[in-house]
Amino acid sequence: MRREPSTRVAIARRLAEKEHGDHRRKDASTTVQHLHRVARRVEDYGDRYVITAYLHDMLEDTGIPPEVLGGLFGQPILDDVRALTHDTERETYADYIDRLCKDGTLAALRVKEADLTDNMDGPEEDWHRSLLRRYEPAFEKVTAEIRRREGADYRELVDALV
Fold first, then answer.
1. Domain 7-161: which topology?
2. What is the distance between the alpha carbons of residues 151 and 145, in angstroms, rounded to a whole number?
3. How high is the pLDDT of residue 24?
4. How far apart are alpha carbons 9 and 103 in whole angstroms?
5. 4-8 contacts at long range (C-beta below 8 A, 24 or more positions apart)
6. Cβ-contact 128, 27 below 8 angstroms
7. Nearest to 117 by CA among 28, 61, 37
8. What is the helix (H) or strand (E) element at residue 96, kind and residue range?
9. Residue 151: φ, ψ to 5°
């Protein structure tokens, strides 16, 4: 059973819809459709994940200043969005994924996992196959880091109980 979104989730969704407008992706779907799919993939983890999912492309693809996101959603979510922002002028895609895996929170990593999953689910066309060559290694690296962290969290919990 789906629960009603919190006010902050609703604000993030509306802000994403407004700022991304009718932006189109290579597969002709809208960016907003992509954001909804990513948000659905992480909704079981809680509001922070869903808000971050709606905002994850905001700094890359719109003119909204980071301070606005920080003011509306707080520093932890702004930090997650910044971690998910690929600065194409300063880092390669591989360097971006390395930075995300090193410095990103579990929320940022889970959103990236959902983002990559959605990005890899596409048509059998040349442009999509070329993206898969980029996304598949990134997906493997991100999911390995999630597993590593979750394993560490589990081991710490067990140690604390013993």
1. Hypothetical protein af1432 (1.10.3210)
2. 10
3. 75
4. 24
5. 5/47, 5/50, 6/47, 8/47, 8/51, 8/73
6. yes
7. 37
8. helix 93-103
9. -65, -40
Residues 75-120: tens digit of each pLDDT: 999 999 999 999 999 999 999 999 999 999 999 999 999 999 998 8
Collect all residues with Cβ–Cβ distance below 8 Å to 119 and sequence separation of at least 6. Answer: 34, 131, 135
Place of tokens 């808000």: 51
Q: What is the pLDDT of residue 34?
A: 93
CA distance 3 to 69: 24
Q: Of the candidates 61, 79, 62, 74, which has an alpha carbon nearest to the alpha carbon of residue 8?
A: 74
Among 161, 155, 38, 60, residue whose Cα is nearest residue 107: 38
Q: What pLDDT is recorded for position 21? A: 84
Per-domain residue ranges of the chain: 7-161
Please give the model's pTM, rounded to 2 decimal places. 0.88
Q: Is the dihedral of CA 98, 123, 25, 106 positive or negative?
A: negative
Q: HSE of 148 in the Cβ direction (CA atoms, 13 Å)?
A: 10
Low-confidence ranges of the chain (pLDDT < 50): 1
Q: Which two three-digit tokens encode residue 15? A: 């802000």
* Contact predicate 139/112, CB 8 Å: no
* Token output for 131: 């993206």
Nearest alpha carbon to residue 32 among 42, 40, 24:
24
